[in-house]
Write a structure and sequence with these properties.
alpha/beta; hydrolase activity; Arginase, Chain A; histone deacetylase activity; 12% strand; 300 residues; Acetoin utilization deacetylase AcuC; single chain; 8-stranded parallel beta sheet; HDAC_classIV; 43% helix; 10 helices
């Protein structure tokens, strides 16, 4: 059975004026339930994450500033959110949901987190709507508990996974692959193990050709026993923060190709949703829901 991490706090951790970026996290599971693609048994609500697991990935002082709500105002502005206990709880539950998703992925091949993909959070900073790096925390958890030896993080959000790259810059057990807009946020890039910067306006055929050339070779070289996939839909032409020009059909083809590669090599995959900022919320929700539908079509 497909298992999907979701909690209402994903969608409602902020004051009224800041809620639009979070609205999709309520609408994605609602739409999947409405269409009968999933039922309530597919959803699970993550618990809180233990502090020792958090500080394995994030600097202890940075974590204490988040936990105690003492993060300096300048650093709060960098995250894009006003800091609150509810927001921090949201980040903790998302990270726990990604860890739990890994365990479900070992059983079923694939598992999802409705939120997550918080790849701009580095070891001692938050930025770009990211405070704790859920997939980095989960990757370290797998390594520490001998659940995986070789991990591949596939980041296909329009923005570089700079926090993830920084966290794992000296970790041979995790290979970071980011394919992103060259001229987009973050403007100070970190070095992933493999970065493919794309020029503005890259469309369906070029994007898919690069991915289909790169990913099979990367899997053959690295031989990962677990994959994390960040499936941001801010690569869409409609996205107001992205600078690429992909259609929904190409976004769906991207997801299908990643899943097919995981299936071909019998590698479990955990999926976090990442970004999506099209002006019309329906475009964001439809594109994200297509990722779930594609996985269900291939795995179940």
């Amino acid at each position: 059975m497909l298992k999907i991490a979701y909690d209402p706090i994903y969608a409602h951790p902020l004051p009224e004026g800041h809620r639009f970026p979070m609205l999709k996290y309520e609408l994605i599971p609602a739409q999947l339930l409405h269409e009968g693609v999933i039922n309530k048994d597919n959803l699970f609500s993550p618990d809180l994450l233990a502090e020792d697991v958090i500080i394995r990935t994030h600097d202890e002082n940075y974590w204490h500033q988040l936990r105690d709500l003492t993060l300096p105002p300048k650093e709060q502005r960098r995250t894009g959110f006003p800091l609150s206990a509810r927001l921090v709880e949201r980040e903790i539950r998302i990270a726990k949901g990604t860890i739990d998703g890994c365990r479900y992925a070992f059983e079923s091949g694939v598992a999802f987190n409705v939120a997550g993909g918080t790849h701009h959070a580095g070891s001692n900073w938050g930025e770009g709507f990211c405070l704790l790096n859920d997939q980095a925390i989960a990757a370290n958890y797998l390594l520490d508990n001998y659940l995986a030896k070789s991990i591949l993080i596939i980041d296909l959000d329009v923005h570089q996974g700079n926090g993830t790259a920084q966290i794992f810059e000296n970790e041979p057990g995790v290979f970071t692959f980011s394919m992103h807009g060259a001229n987009n946020f973050p403007y100070r890039k970190e070095r992933s193990d493999l970065d493919i910067p794309l020029q503005d306006g890259v469309g369906d055929d070029e994007f898919l050709d690069i991915l289909k050339t790169t990913l099979p070779r990367l899997i053959e070289q690295q031989k990962p026993d677990f994959i994390f996939y960040l499936s941001g839909v801010d690569i869409l032409a409609t996205d107001k923060l992205g600078k690429l020009a992909l259609s929904k059909e190409a976004c769906k083809a991207r997801d299908r190709f990643v899943f097919e590669q995981c299936i071909k090599h019998s590698i479990p995959v955990q999926v976090s949703m990442g970004g999506g900022y099209s002006p019309q919320i329906k475009d964001i929700v439809e594109a994200h829901c297509n990722t779930f539908k594609t996985a269900i079509d291939l795995y179940f």
